[in-house]
């Protein structure tokens, strides 16, 4: 039983939205829309001249749509005022942030209170509807002039000029006497920039959400259709809005307000002229990048399809590559992006985190950085790798070598550095080698290759004489590769490095706690079939756990916990029974490791065992980097969760988990 009046109003509102209401249901504005709908939007209907449907210089005194509470009704009036402020002030490039922030705040309000979304659309439709000039000699216009002083008659009479009698079998449509559109009335209408800025606002709104009321959605589509053309600036914005609306209906609404980048992209150029109004560079490990276009509804999955078509890579489901973003605060942290997320939402949340967790104000010079690299590696799929994938893998392995995550001797390091120099710089501009008639790489190129591709841990141990010897050897070997194509060198490089059993695995620094002394540092290698602990210095295997033996895994207070079960018949390598392993790691890496293991298990078709909630594994909600295309993670990571909330949840959850696991461990 509903006893609260507010709850009753809420239910009545939602039922009215779903049902669409009757011809006399809703506000006066909604009744006019209903009447136009009954007349199939007859372009000659005099209802299009109703002042309530046209641009207003004055603020509204009551909402245009039905709202369930007085609070929302008050917010609706403020929302219309925001639209008026946005459109009435001429946009200037030096002070454009005024319009950016005003627009962002209004749209965020509509995301916070979804009931206001239809209100915003009605307000923007109203503010983009021009007053038309009166057509002389038409009786209905004279009638309008006679009765325009009587507001009650115009707005309330059920059989008046504006609310046509629909009781007959044939619905009559009051007309303006001509099927030709009338020109705008310059005496009543505001300056043209007002309408253009209102259309810009509408262009941003249609990429975020759509009216939930079918009647208002129909009216929005009709409004766009009536105004769209390929000649005028307003008509082009209307045509773009049509495309954007269809995309939002297809892909669903957004979670976050538009980013500054998205707003500026719409405000500074008419999006009609571009099939995709936004563009962003995607970076690769080899230092190159590719600019890819997208719109307000583009998902990460759609974006990756466009990217792979441009650069010549397979679908990510086959290649194992993934799209990452940098962290707005922490320098060396990356987030794998959820394939179902909207790219514009990712950018917006990144900007918000930068502002709210950074200096408190937005840094215009700092923008999100997207990186494309291999994440899930499958040896069996290697035979189908494209040339671009092989090239990027070379650079990724080289990065692991530089970070000390790949076992390599000094001799092999020199050979691989030479191959990478030929891959990266090719047949460089050369100088005459002293005492020989041949040419070779210049000393500057040799030094560049040495610094870029020879492991830092080996460079640091060399004295001046040893450094000179290595540089001479590098030059000699590089000359020996003359005539080798990039493809040849890539093939040789991968053939050599793939001999390591953990090629393609992702390595995480960790430590195993010791009751007798300090923790022992190890590498946690996650590959397609197992989790392996490697000695940190020699990188020899310490212990290996196949995914079939994993009982559970995930964050446990400040540690990563892995519980495995070994049957008695498989006890030759591990003691039979259930065992718990704790690894000391930082929280962002705990989450990254958890998601990567889950994705590999899903790729193998194995059910993922119960793991702690991802939101409890990190002090930043953004650490909930989406798993990958192999798994479905609901929603986009919330970049704004605070440390205290996460830690309190973590302690409660892990206290229970430790008790349960300890009782079950043999």
TrEMBL record:
The keyword Coiled coil applies. The keyword Coiled coil applies. Residues 278-608 form the FERM domain. Residues 55-267 form the MyTH4 domain. GO terms for cellular component: cell periphery; cytoskeleton. GO terms for biological process: animal organ morphogenesis; system development. Keywords: Coiled coil, Repeat. Residues 607-639 are annotated as: Disordered. It holds the Pfam family MyTH4. SMART domains: B41, MyTH4. This is Uncharacterized protein. It comes from Penaeus vannamei. The lineage of its organism: Eukaryota, Metazoa, Ecdysozoa, Arthropoda, Crustacea.
